[in-house]
From TrEMBL:
Gene this protein is translated from: mro_2
InterPro entries (alphabetical): Aldose_1-epimerase, Aldose_1/G6P_1-epimerase, Gal_mutarotase_sf_dom, Galactose_mutarotase-like, GH-type_carb-bd
One annotated GO molecular function: carbohydrate binding
Lineage: Bacteria, Pseudomonadati, Bacteroidota, Bacteroidia, Bacteroidales
Pfam families linked: Aldose_epim (PF01263)
Superkingdom: Bacteria
Cofactors (names): Ca(2+)
Family the entry assigns: Belongs to the aldose epimerase family.
Subunit structure: Monomer.
Active site per UniProt: H186, E325
Catalytic reactions of this protein: alpha-D-glucose = beta-D-glucose
Organism: Bacteroides uniformis
Functional pathway: Carbohydrate metabolism; hexose metabolism
UniProt xrefs under NCBIfam families: PRK11055.1 (NF008277)
Protein name: Aldose 1-epimerase
Positions annotated to bind beta-D-galactose: H186, A187, Y188, D260
Length: 361
């Protein structure tokens, strides 16, 4: 039964619980243009983004769940809609060095660490506060050693649903000891609208502001190489559908089982908020422009989605959704030629990402 109190149809009672002594709940953000977003503070998971199509019809454009249990279960393996951190992406052998000290993280992806292991930000109950209807402030105190990372880190995130239909994420963090920091958001988008039967994202058109991308090995680790996109299926400098080249016998697409790669964004200056990519669903006319302060954008085409059932009975098979993760280059700690992700004691970390929605005929 869809709940009538919100456009998404979620029942707030299904998200009320106590985990690790902290209260969880459902938070609803609304802007002045009729858009709505549902979020739970467990993992800071985005459960819905209700965005209009070219006829003004509002539909959910991200994978979501009806209950906290389901959201928790699926974000554990697939990080659905969650905030990832302290460090997003894979770290080779889970090993890194900060200052004079070596650290070893839990290995949860073959012999490597993915998305900071099983106890990353996606499992944290964030302290949540809604200063106004279109904003949610999420806070987490990361204690020294949590998930294997050094430093007592105070993390603040603001989710804003702007009146011009942007989902804006502002991250801030401070540490009392040098550490690594590079979070991201792991929403899975299908701009046709999540419904039954589920459509593939292979018809979505994508443009990415990148002349280079980072090749991966068979375990999806960056090899450290920075390769030009020209004459490859990774050239999205003009619009291409996701499906156009995804099944080519290209070693990189075979390694990723599709796209699961970091694009090196063309930027006016490192950490300046700038255009990263556009994604368009031709069937609905929905368009999403992505802006970020970060140097990289991972396009992950849901290659491992197993077909579980999510919100309102919707089934999400392989390639039914695509992630655009704005972040540092994966495995930066082991690639000194990538822009550093060391957060120094006394410095203020800042990151902004905007998923800007609009429509076109
Ligand atoms: C990674 C994929 C991984 C997925 C987990 C993505 O960010 O790049 O390799 O399978 O997260 O759902």
């Amino acid at each position: 039964m869809k709940d009538k109190t919100n456009l998404t149809g979620l029942n707030p009672d299904n998200f009320r619980s106590v985990i690790n002594g902290k209260d969880t709940g459902l938070y609803i953000l609304r802007n002045g243009s009729g858009m709505e977003m549902c979020v739970t503070n467990y993992g800071a998971i985005v459960l819905s983004i209700m965005a209009p199509d070219s006829h003004g019809k509002f539909e959910n454009v991200v994978i979501g769940f009806d209950t906290l249990e389901e959201a928790r279960r699926q974000s554990k393996d697939y990080y659905i809609g969650a905030t990832i951190g302290p460090v997003a992406g894979r770290i080779l052998h889970g090993a890194f060095r900060v200052g004079e000290k070596d650290y070893h993280l839990q290995l949860n992806s073959v012999s490597n660490t993915l998305h900071s292991g099983d106890n990353g930000f996606h499992t944290v109950v964030w302290e949540a506060q809604q200063p106004c209807e279109n904003q949610l402030l999420l806070r987490h105190f990361h204690a020294d050693g949590e998930a294997g990372f050094p430093g007592n880190v105070t993390v603040r995130m603001m989710y804003t649903l702007t009146d011009d239909n942007g989902f804006r994420i502002d991250y801030e963090a401070e540490t009392d000891r040098d550490t690594l920091f590079c979070p991201t958001n792991h929403a899975y988008f299908n701009l046709a609208g999540m419904g039954t039967p589920t459509t593939s994202i292979e018809d979505h058109l994508v443009r990415i502001n990148a002349d280079f991308y980072l090749p991966i090995d068979m375990n999806t680790n960056n090899t450290g190489e920075v390769r030009a996109v020209g004459d490859t299926p990774f050239d999205f400098r003009d619009y291409h559908s996701i499906g156009e080249r995804i099944n080519r016998k290209d070693l990189q697409l075979l390694n990723g089982h599709g796209y699961d790669h970091c694009f090196v964004l063309k930027k006016p200056a490192l950490h300046e908020l700038s255009f990263a990519a556009t994604c368009i669903s031709p069937s609905s006319g929905r368009r999403m422009d992505i802006y970020t302060t970060e140097p990289g954008l991972i396009m992950y085409t849901g290659n491992y989605l197993p077909g579980f059932t999510g919100m309102h009975g919707t089934v999400y098979p392989r390639r039914s959704a695509v992630c655009f993760e704005t972040q540092c280059f994966p495995d930066t700690p082991n690639n000194p030629h990538f822009p550093s992700i060391v957060l120094r004691e006394g410095d203020l970390y800042k990151q902004t990402c905007i998923y800007q929605f609009s429509t076109q005929p």
